[in-house]
Amino acid sequence: MKKRLYILGWVIAILSMLQMSVETAWGRSALMPTHLRCEYRENPLGIDSSIPRLAWKIEDRGQTSEIRGQKQTAYQVLVASTPELLAKDQGDLWDSKKVASDQSIQVEYGGKPLESRAYCHWKVRVWVNDGKPTAWSAPAFWSMGLLKRGAGRRSGSRRVAILRPGCAGSSP
Predict the structure, then answer these.
(1) What is the mean pLDDT of residues 62-70?
(2) Which DSSP string do the residues of 93-154 spell out, in sequence order?
(3) Which of 139, 151, 119 is nearest to 46 (CA)?
(4) Strand, coil or helix: what is 45?
(5) Cβ(152)–Cβ(116) below 8 Å
(6) Which uninterrupted H or E stretch holds 20?
(7) What are the extents of the domains in the chain?
(8) How far apart are CA 111 and CA 100, in angstroms?
(9) Which among 59, 78, 68, 83 is positioned nearest to 136, based on CA atoms?
(10) What ranges make up the beta strands (E) of 3-98?
(11) 61 DSSP assignment
């Protein structure tokens, strides 16, 4: 039994090294953007900023990139209105294209104006010292809150005050 576990451990280690070699050979960095955040939260609901700020970390198989001396040199953010568009690498709300920057925190959304209650699905990829792009991050999302006063009302709707007996303004 111990021998099987020992062999299984070696097989997993070899497969991991092969995967990293294939990624590098295909022009992909072994690094990956992770921990995607919008306004400092993962997948937040009800963002009240019309220009949300995005952030991510770069990891290499669970270790931070700074340990290995890798540094982000550029990024690309895609934001889509549906997960299906995002899966096709189509950012109908925003495609930042390749931006030469080491910034990975407080990256301001720069796409189409966002509306109240909109869902925004996004992902990011980065370039590092070796000049190769990483794979796309796992998708994340945020939803917009109510951005303007009265945005929560439906057209033609009215507020109705319900008064209890004995309250000021109620008739006997």
Answers:
(1) 55
(2) SEE---EE----SSEE--SSPP-TT-EEEEEEEEEETTSPBPPPPPPEEEEB---STTTTSP
(3) 119
(4) coil
(5) yes
(6) helix 2-25
(7) 1-29, 31-143
(8) 18
(9) 78
(10) 32-38, 53-60, 63-64, 72-80, 94-95
(11) T
Instruction: Say whether domain 31-143 belongs to CATH 3.10.20.70.
Output: no
Alpha-carbon distance of 157 to 170, in angstroms, equals: 22
d(CA 89, CA 137): 12
Q: What are phi and psi of 38, to 5 degrees?
A: -125, 125
- The predicted model scores a pTM of 0.68
Residue 142, both tokens? 């945020």
Residue with tokens 């937040």: 44
Quick one: residue 69, left, alpha or beta (phi over 0 = left, psi -120 to 50 = alpha)?
A: left
The two three-digit tokens of residue 47, written as one number: 């963002």
Task: Tell me the pLDDT of the chain averaged across its residues.
Answer: 79
How does pLDDT run across 106-134, given as a tens digit for each residue? Answer: 999 999 999 999 999 999 999 998 788 99
The string of pLDDT tens digits covering residues 12-25 is 545 554 454 444 44
Q: Which residues contact 153 (CB under 8 A, 6 or more apart)?
A: none
